[in-house]
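Appendix B, example 12.
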Amino acid sequence: MFQDTNLPNEPNVERNAGDSPQPGSRLSSVRVEVQLPPHTVRTIKFPPNARALIGRSEDEEAASDLMLDFAPYGGEPNGVSRIHAAISDQEGQVFITDLNSTNGTRINGLELVVQRPYRLYEGDELELGSVRLTIIRISRS
């Protein structure tokens, strides 16, 4: 079950009903651009109907499994778990799922339920532990 990321008192209301791809359309790679403090922009790119892991590595081998590694951005002291969350593409829509992180994940201040996907939109502010980032753009290439 996918959870939309609306205000807490409106959990099942679609924010943008026209976001879905047209039936029969061919999906291309997903690109999610995020702004990290203070002024760093990173792009996460992954195939359609796949997922990208977010967390922090302790060595180069572990970093290869992460699409967005928070180790260089103070991930450990700021509460980012080794495998914290996943951003995934499901039928043309992009979701984030907390993967049982120690310090939780929030979208626009809303605490996510572990292992439940929540829809992401451009402009959403995410918190992983105490690290904040903003979704700048969600696109396909």
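The helical segments are 60-63. Residues 60-63 form the longest helix (4 residues).
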